[in-house]
Amino acid sequence: MSVPSRSLAELVEELPPDARAQVRDFVEFLLTKRKRSQGRTLRQNWAGALREHRDRYSSLQLQKKALEWRSS
Asked: Does a structural domain hold residue 44?
């Protein structure tokens, strides 16, 4: 037997007022987070930053070194 699906508004209506406030806060958080992430552009200001190391390391070694430097 399938359970009839209810809308989000119907489900929220069944919650007590304090839980409704939590739902509202969470929805507002999600909307704000989504707006922030949509406006971002990819920055590539790091390009060429490891140029001085190209004679000492291969690209794979540079990737590993960059991870080491980032974590320290």
From this structure: no
